[in-house]
Fold each of these.
Amino acid sequence: MPKWGMVIDLNKCTGCGECVTACKVELNVPVVGPEESAKGRTILCMDILSTYEGEFPEVKMRHMPRPCFHCEHPPCTKVCPVRATYKNDEGIVAQIYPQCIGCRYCQVACPYTVKHFNWTKPEWPEERCEALNPDVSVRPEGVVEKCTFCVHRLQKAKEQAAVDGRDLREGDYVPACVESCPTKAMYFGDLDNPKHKVSQLKKSHRAFRLMEDLGTEPKVYYLSEVE
Amino acid sequence: MKIKQVILIGLLLPASLVFAYLNGRDGGSQPIAYNHNMHVQENDMECLDCHVYAEDGARASIPNVELCRDCHEEASTESEAEAALLSYVNDNRRIPWRQINVVPDYAYFSHRRHVKLGELDCVACHGEVGEMVKPVSEPFQEVTMDWCMDCHEARNVSNDCYACHR
């Protein structure tokens, strides 16, 4: 069984936000109005955390793209009363939308705040409706949404590999954010397969994960910046 | 209150009877009284001649005027149904077929996976459509999750939620 994971090289990330946009389009993430947004109800399945260090004029900005970390020990799945969220055999933390009752326990349990509740019926500007991604469902109001590691791409890639009569190869299955990155700062693959780039990079001395002390074991690694 | 209900039923009942009669007479829930049997049995057409992506695509596809035109440029029968078809063909209007078998957007169903890789016959899921003289108006098998899962279990195929849900 593969164990899907991601490595993000912060040395290469410029904080351009291309991954954020690609994700929003790929996953049919609704745009919420300014009022909802002011209440903190913006949904971003991929977000960039920016921090400022130092004092003017010596300010240094740091960026950290943050998808769902698909933890090996996810706190969110343990609190779900209906098993709408669980970790599957390939390590992806799933969110089964029609199963979700919208209790939001998982959202609260997530230490990385990557789960989002959709408070309103999803809406798009008229011209966008035609262009919604047919491979991804439009979630109904009142469920928790999250990054799925673009599992719909995995479903298709597996089928294509089967048609071609071969195993899944590195690069067959890559989420939209990784694909979109103009500086190639993001890597994706099987963390357990020594041939895959991610499994090599995760052993780098620059590799770290967020809040490692929690024991959640995220499957998204960062490579720290070199000063 | 009572009177109103009686009046309502009095109005709706004849209306629905008329509707049922008209419905039975032509295409039912479909715009044209399409006849599978006449094409498949009597004229030896293959399913894939019309549902061209049923083997290589996720959706089988329902054919429309571009394809019908190949054989129906002008009337070859006296049938009302063919006359109806010709008006679509001549005006180059799309026939608004209603899709009967539907999987919701949150589940992934692919014909290629089942027909090509699973080597399943159309009949396994759709019944003897080729012998139908009336348009398909209801699914042969109601599309439910249990239906998908029962077959998967019997054939040792994954029933992980994320095999289908998206």
Amino acid sequence: MSRVSKSNELLRFSERGIYCPPADVYIDPWRPVDRAIITHGHSDHARAGHGHYLAHRFTTAIMKHRLGEGLSYQSVDYGDSVNINGVTFTFIPAGHILGSCQLRIEYKGHIGVVSGDYKLEDDGISGCYEPIPCHTLITECTFGLPLFNWKEDHLVKEELNTWVKENALSGKNSVLLGYSLGKAQRLQHMLETDLPIYVHGAVHHMNAIYEHCGISLPPTIYPQDTKKPEGPCVVIAPPSVLGTPWLRKFAPFASSMASGWMSLRGPRRRRSVDKGFVLSDHMDWKGLHTVMDETRPERVICTHGYTDIFAQYLREQGIEAITEKTEFETEQTE
Amino acid sequence: MRDFADMFQAVDGSTKTTVKTQALKNYFDKADPKDKVWAIAIMSHRRPKRPMTTTLLREWAAEYAEIPLWLFEDSYHIAGDLAETITLLCHSRESDIEDSRSLDDFMKFIISMKGMDTEAQRVLVQETWRTLDYTSCFIFNKLLTGNFRMGVSQKLMQRSLSLSVGIEENVIAHKLMGDWTPASIDFQELILDIQPENMASKPYPFYLAYSMPGRSKELGDPKDWQVEWKWDGIRGQVILRDAHLYVWTRGEELVTDRYPEFTSFTESIFDGTVLDGEIMAFKDGMPLDFQALQKRIGRKIISNKLMEEIPVVFMIYDLLEHEGKDIRQLPMSERRALLEVIVKKAHNENLLISPLVEFKEWIDLDSLIQTAREKRCEGFMLKHKESAYEVGRKKGNWWKWKVDPYSIDAVLTFAMRGHGRRANLYTDYTFGLWQDGELITFAKAYSGLSDKEFNRVDSFVRKNTVQRFGPVRQVKPELVFELAFEGIAHSNRHKSGVAVRFPRMVRWRTDKKASEANKLSDLIDLIPEDGRNQDG
Ligand SMILES: [Zn+2]
């Protein structure tokens, strides 16, 4: 029997999610199932309604906050393996957000990997991506186009801190907009400032989970009242606050958005913000190539992002590649 | 180039007029005069012609980025902008680039590449990419592809320049008209000199109208208003000075040679006259359809046969200069009176005056506008009789009042991904109309739906793809949309035999089945019949 049919036997795409028949579990399912393994805590991967959740302990901490305390959770650590009906699931860091894991799935000598969402560069707070040599790789390709190549973190960091400083000099507060789980904490981690940092409620709650998991972030203020802050400050919030009274009390301010999409001029200009930072929690074009080089998969299944294009490119490079439809989303900015 | 790139970044990165004006003024305050003339030229659509085809640029960029050409094309389709795509793939990622070339150096370099053999061009272009940071590389590529737009209106540029040099904005606007190039003029002569020698050919800035926001009766007493038909040709200015004729379009193109019909104006009209009007294809007392004028616009050599087939007239709206004097500040009614005398004396069949529409009450116009289509007009122009001829687009004294667009219900047949923000969504659509049980493609449209609707159509497209052709998906013919468009004519360049102008989606007819959409014959019935269509 060929490897390809073995992989079909090991992992299958169904209406409910990525299914592993011998273990009878789903990975990041998008419809309610009995047993789910979750790669990370973003809402398109960790959904409500499953009977039993297995995930990294940081991810279960996030799920307890988002989905509720009283569900059936089982927690593991990085590097831990769980055996289900002869299938071994190993949790390997993905470098995407707090607790994010790739799943290494071994069964009868065949190794499959589900990437979840992942990122190459170690940002210091999201775990550090490790390559996993495998036969079958199920990968995201949110930014699977040669247009997308991230700058190194230290360059974005410099750009960010310079911008904050310039705003303060011209009497403006700096508003940094980014997704409340992952991006917001990365921005805080990058900030080097003596100014007070105000955070939105959504960010505040996620910060608490990071702290609970032993990741220290700079001190922040969660404003409980509608008073205007005194003196210059930095504000971190999800993009949904644009145009709300919550944000207005920080006027006068300059606003910025941090996302991989900010590499494109169209989205940068259409977002009504003053500045775009190219900062993504996903693999860029080079990153995806590094993954292919280091893990040498025989077969790649592209799940979300520029799947058609990336799969076609891989086929031309001699790698068997197909696409499968899922309900995972590309990098969220809201 | 650094100062220009910084200015571009400030202007491009902001939506606030105050920020843009300040950035431009700073630039005009400090930049080298040679660079300033180029900057003005770039911002007033006087860019040099591109030195090579974009096909070559794409090949070179794909080669340089080490990706297959199809992947370059797909990336381009998603970024939506060729220069941006090339820049993202080819700019230098070194953080310490020092580039001492000025904007003037760059422009001369770009111009010098024109006519070189392509191999030499390739080496120069790829070598330049290697030395430029993101912003400079983007500007370079924009100049190479010949479509550099700064996100700065002419008005804003003129205001900033005015603030920088202390010369009144309207005077600057007038000085910048015409077909000067940075090679033929310096900053002193272009902007600072009080009476430059080359003013003779210069047109006045055009006065443009906004669409009437409410109902005509809100404009007050109808007796205060002059109403004309809104003709559908090319807005132009005819200048007679120093025994010379100059014909300008609103796009500031000098087109005197394209319309030999106008040569006789020098005999019919006195020197020192400037007329504002519409260049129109016109025959037997009526405009020809919009396709006809297109045929004339493209031609540089005009045969007698073409002039006979598609004769062109100048339909005059206004008199701007009379007996060598700028009379733009006189009231409309006085300018009109002078104009009527000029046209009467001229006796020239290629020189018509835009007739006044007779009406007593505003309500009379409501029914009259319904006849606009038969007259091949777009609607009315409403001008206050006291109005001066102003500069640029202004509200209040002139309004355009357009007739409702044509509309038809068509079936979605093909879809392509959109650009930029919609790069992940299928938002560029092709539409068909029924003929003998088959859908015949007749138009493409990209705009008119809400984000929510685009999302729903996108998911329909993904679930109902019948076939793929590269980035294009053929879909099950199920969805019906009402399309609106401004003009319609016979055409043998289109498979449907019909060309429509400015098509867009007005609404999604979720109440209609595909079989209930219109037939191609319904569309053909909309074409105003006069048996004289040019290529039907
Ligand atoms: Zn994620």
Amino acid sequence: MSETSDTVPVTVLTGYLGAGKTTLLNRILTENHGKKFAVVINEFGELGVDNDLVIDADEEVFEMNNGCICCTVRGDLVRILGGLMKRRGKFDGIIVETTGLANPAPVAQTFFMDEDVKRATRLDAIVTVVDAKNLIARLADSKEAEEQIAFADLIVLNKMDLVSEDEAAEVERRIKAINPYAEIRRATRSAVPVESVIGRDAFKLERILEREPDFLTSDEHEHNEEVMSMSFEVSQPIDAEKFNAWISQLLQAKGQDLLRTKGILAYQGEENRFAFQAVHMIADGDFIGPWKEGDPRKSKIVFIGRNLNRPQLRRGFEGCVASQGAA
Amino acid sequence: MSEGMTGSVEDADFLLSTRGAGRELGAWVVGVAFGRDGKGAAFGLGDGTLHLADPALPEAEWRRLEAHDGACLTLVPDFADGFLSGGDDGKLLRVLPDGGVSALADFGMMKWVEHIATHPSGLRAVAVGKAVHLLDKASAKLKALAHPSTVGGVAFDAKGKRIAAGHYNGVSLWFVNSREDKPRVLPWKGSHQLVAFSPDGTHVVSTMQENALHGWRLTDQQDMRMSGYPTKIKSFSFTGKGRWMATAGADCVVLWPFFAGGPMGKPPVELAGGDGVLCTQVACHPQHEVVAAGFQDGLVLMAEIGSGKIVPVAAPGRGAVSALAWNATGTHLAFGTETGFAGLVDLSRRG
Ligand SMILES: [Zn+2]
């Protein structure tokens, strides 16, 4: 993903119908921040959107790589972002609202897979608005609701006025079991500070695993079809070749179940940290700055997905440790 | 840089400075076109303006029109004279060389008029979302052709009898005059964008979302995959008699032979390569086997296919070439760049 500052940031807003997505969108647009946004909405939007530059998108999910069902992009976004780039300078950022039933993977993958989109824009964050009152029911009956949580960098836990503290705590527990890395902001009528939504740069490799979450090890709760997350750490240096071989084989074989993968790695003989992320099979990685003086050089990898096999993933990751003595 | 290809940078501007003119227009040049009657050259920009020049007097003042409320998305010659321009304001405009503008259709503010094709018989095909609207000379809507997904490109065959439209998982072929509107779909997995018929009407070629072109031989529906490109292909063009198809998308002009059984099983010819700069636009001369090419660094050149001889038109340094076109007789060449430079060269003029 392009890291240059002349790329236009794109914020993706997801969430079920009625969760308060459009209310949040209108808040961002009307607040006095001096920024201009181009807004891409879907044709089933519930409320009017108050903005000069609104584009009506017809969500078109295209399979790439000769029809792999997880290697998908949003064809309409490729087209629309390409068109918007021809009038760049007219806006500071782009906000893409998805339909309630959308799986966020094709949107995210568009920013990894399409070279024109990569060259001109960067994915700033995926923001998911959820309804505190109804989320648990949604998670029970919809894959997309889980995926929207799994992909989120920020979750706006909305309609807090309709739930008790106990109910809210239970909803947060469920969210963290799926995605412990997302920041949760409680809100009523989608009232959250605009700067908490826009300009997060959450997909920048430098920011991967920056937040140290309160990881809930919910081992008692491992239904296979449910989305969950697992994290592994090793303190010995990693062999870059072994890691590459393992991760590419893993993504190829299990990519459809792996929604998001993120890692920070200490390669043997390397002073810089290696950051890595993937959406399904599509991966991206690069060296980011050096390890902090005195910090332990621990390598860490996090998987968010379905049917995760903890012992197998642990063995695989531990198998990437460099053999002793080899420089 | 390879020796002898472009010579020095100062020399590379010789044609532009002695037989043409260039202007900084201030926004991404989306399209350039010459009127089919030879009158007028037009540039369509990402800020919604159109700029009109006189091919007979490139250095005379160019006329600037505020045309679209948004961006111009496509600009083509109309069927006889003047131009058609499509915008992200939903408008289809007809523009005359004297600056006259009329709106032929308004599809609504949130709809994009993205692709237009015209034919000298008077037909105009206008792609908006999933539909291709077919208009006649008088701008009356003849029909609207529906597709399963957004149309990425539209083209007429040389006779104006068929229309091709690229979309997800294939290209649809429509007969203009057929009473029942069902297309013949040429299937191939993936997203198809720009389309063209070979001049003899025997092949259809599309650019894909992936770094490849796809082609179909219509007689037996044989597939042709043209891959191996380092980037997406944003431009391709057949030579006048259809012997070659030139494509952008590599660090040279790639030419596929459409004769002697090709392009099946025939390797392409590469021209004007060697300095590692990506070719972004190509346009074949309407008669001769000569191809004009624009590059990522702003270089514009002409290459003779038979001899490989290169003649520079404009030097690098003015932004990636985003639009390139010949006039109908092949005496003039016009181009534009992503950063807003536009050039017009009269090659028939004595130096
Ligand atoms: Zn896949």
